[in-house]
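Chapter summary example.
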Amino acid sequence: MVHALQVTNLPDLHRDPFDRIIIAESQVEKMPIVTVDSQITQYPVDVIW
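The structure predicted for these 49 residues follows.
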């Protein structure tokens, strides 16, 4: 539930709902994301790749 609520706090930089959930989970759990998606790097998350 916390992850879903975090999605509502995200700026509308990425339109893919699945990616927005991944970003929210990364923020809540303080875990990095492994991706080459340049749109995800616009969010305050740690990205590995």
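To summarize the output: The two ends are 28 Å apart (CA to CA).
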